[in-house]
Design brief:
The complex is a heterodimer.
Chain A (H helix, E strand, L loop, with lengths): L3 H17 L3 H17 L1 H8 L5 H12 L5 H12 L6 H16 L1 E8 L5 H15 L2 E8 L7 E5 L2 E4 L2 H19 L1
Chain B lengths: L1 H9 L3 H8 L6 H136 L2 H14 L5
Classes of the chains: A alpha+beta, B mainly alpha.
Amino acid sequence: MADRRVARRYANALFTTALKYDVVKGVEDDLNSIVGLLDNDPEFREFVIAPYTGRDQKIEIVERMFSDRVTALTMQVLRVMLEKRREDEIIGVRDEFVTLRREHAGVIFAVVTSAREIEAAQRKALLAKLEQTIGKKIEAEFKLDPHLIGGIRVAYGNYVLDGSVRGTLSSLRDRLRHDLLKQQ
Amino acid sequence: MVGGTWFSLNVKIAAIEKLNEQGLPLDLGKTIAVIGVFLILFPAIKSFFINDLTNAIESRNHHLEDTFSEAENLRAEMQKLRTEYEARMAQTEAEARFQIQNQIKEAQNLRQQLMAEATERADALVRQAQLEIDQEKSNAIAVIRTHVVDLTLAAAEKVIGENMDNEKNRRLIADFIETVEVAS
């Protein structure tokens, strides 16, 4: 079971160092690549996460795979995590690193969910409008959810901007029920 | 007695002689002697008989008088007791009537009180039942309305879903971008 506090500590140290050497973007790209490989390659994931694989063997293979593809700082962190048997925290470190980077840069992460694919122009317009209204730079992840029927829903921080048909119908249902309760 | 004897021997009266001749002998001297003897013996007779007889009579009279007096006293006492008894009876009857009247009045008050309480309780039960009926009615109506709302919205959702296309979805998103506002 991954421990977010441990991941937070590793990410904090990594981000501080990356910031110092101005390689934040490169480290984040490295982490995204490694996590992408973990997500998409079950064999690699099994090798890295499995407790019965030897520590030295893991380090050797990982170094051979990533030493010429990632920054030295990322490689160093990977090595330390494998030595400390913290390989199952890699995904958490990536998430916490991204969070720290966004906090540092004053960027807000938003999840934009739509029933159908949003055109590139509309994505651009949406982000521009959100940045204008929120007053901060936005990083968005776009997701599809046919359950919404139509429109979009934007979630960031503790807020949800619901412009979906599903949300509108739910809101209408709540309002009608509220009115019914008031009539009693 | 001596005079009588002398008279009998010495005095001859013609009328008496004539009676003797006719077969009705009357010796006046003996009669006078007898009277004399009687007069001489009278105090003794009086002393031995008449006084005792008088005393007995007087004693009897006294006894009778005492008896009558006692009877009179008893009668008076009886009369007094009767009067007291009648007075007591009258007082008892009056008290009994008073008690009966009080009991009747108390019973009537209790009856009225019980009637009032029963009426009040019945009214309260009726009011409570009416309230519960109204509440149940309201609940049933609310449930029905809620169902109607759900059915209506489900129908609306189905219709909208069937009629949703890329163009409408694009317009919905454009409207969202146009009108979106962020809570401060």
